[in-house]
Amino acid sequence: MKSYITIDEILNRKHFSRTEVIAGVNGLRRQLKWVHIVESIQISNLLNGHELILTTGLGFKDHPGQLVSFLQQLIDRQAAGLCIELGTHIHTIPEEVIALADSRHFPIILFHHEVPFVEITQDVHSLIINKQYQLLSELETYSQQLNKMLLEIEDYKQILKFMQSYLEVQVAAVLGGNKTDFFPEPDSSEKEALLFSLRSEEKKAGAASQPVQILGETYAELHIWTECRELNEFDLLVLDRTANAFAQHLLRDLYVKEKKMAEESEWLTNWLEGEYTDEVIKEQLAFQDPMLRLNGGAVCICKLSPDAAGQTQNADSTYFKLLFRTVFEQFGFHLFTVEVRHHLIFIAGNKRNRQDWKDRMSGAISRIYSGSGTERQRASSLTIGVGKFADRLGNIPYSYQTAKETLALQDSLSAEGKSCFYQDLHMYRMMSLLKKHGDLEETINEYLGPVLEYDRKYNGDMLITLKTYLACSGSKQETSKKLFIVRQTLYHRIEKLELLLGENFMNSDKRLALEFMLMAYDFVRNTEGTIPLQHKIE
């Protein structure tokens, strides 16, 4: 169905029965969106494109040569055509005007007698409005048929086949993992050309595409194209409605999968607790999905923020389950989900190469945090911990334990050491052990106590000076730049540090201990807020 009318259609209307097309015959299929009466010479700023211009020639009756400039403006602004009433103000059309119109396939239509422009505009505008009404009626019918299909079908391909038969165009759906479905299915040689065309960024007049989005993520891409005609507004509206129906069908499938996973949470819990061998796990997964092939995996724990009543909202829990599944699948992971109190536990089975698993999972987590609007606000309340990668599925329980440890450390990390991956928290894991099984605060006091007490007593900057000096590997020039102080002030502070820590504090062994204690100081302060001081400065 066309959403517009063309010049040749209005030539069949009663007011055009005695007209003559003197130029631009090859442009009679031009799209017409509105009718505009013009008597001014300068009109380029008044046009939006696809207007049929009606004129008596009043603006150039004394200067017929200006008709060329007038026509060029219409062509440049992509007007649909020009209708001129002869005999009122002008009597002939210059040859150069006809030649220009023919060269640009721009229709010029002559009225050889006086005609009522008001009646013409009313008639054509009524035709345009009726066409738009018909378009909306057809679109509503199409939408109703789609909605009915959504209640009955099991396979999304039926939706795409319906659009293909309705529009009579080539349809392609590119899903995650670069899987592409064609409707109708072309032969192998033609398919390669079509795939190349889809990957090309060059836009064609007979092609259009629409993303299929679920929870803010692009899950698939729908493409339509045809060599027979240009796509019109109705085609694009049908494509949009189909993409929405496709998204609803996929979302329904995701909800069904989540419900199924909830029913299977008991065996997943047993898997996390280490009660199954590799063979048992593989048998269970093969029973669920014979086509699933996993190459190791890791556990990701997501802590949800409770509401004022201390309970996480069910809607948020379901939302994040679907969001994580949608995003992680695009990065090559198959998710199994278990919900425990305020925590969502995801067993992320790896479907691709092991070497880049961390980069892919980091990309997935970044995608979740970088949503737009309310999505970003909801994700900002999450705390995530990722355990050690398990080469064998039977080692997932160890990944689960390390994920819990990583999550517990998140609130203790400094901005420099922030990471949600277990393997990035080398020193912090050691500090956690020292804090559990030793007196970490006492050790921090032993090394940093004099500096902390000096800063407390004199409101000084010795600790930040020490940290910066060590980070700059003892470079005085770089340290003074980072602290925004002159070199002489830095020399004075270093002398003070030598008095507090000893002249050998930059020796390799002691320097290593001080760097570790500075990290430990941040770790304990983030955990408990303050460290009791045991040193006094006289």
UniProtKB/TrEMBL annotation:
Which protein are we looking at?
PucR family transcriptional regulator
A Pfam family annotated for this chain is PucR
**Organism this protein belongs to:** Metabacillus indicus (Bacillus indicus)
PANTHER family in alphabetical order: CARBOHYDRATE DIACID REGULATOR, DNA-BINDING TRANSCRIPTIONAL ACTIVATOR ADER
Purine catabolism PurC-like domain boundaries: 9-128
Q: Which Gene3D superfamilies match?
A: PucR C-terminal helix-turn-helix domain
Domain PucR C-terminal helix-turn-helix stretches: 463-519
Q: Which superkingdom?
A: Bacteria
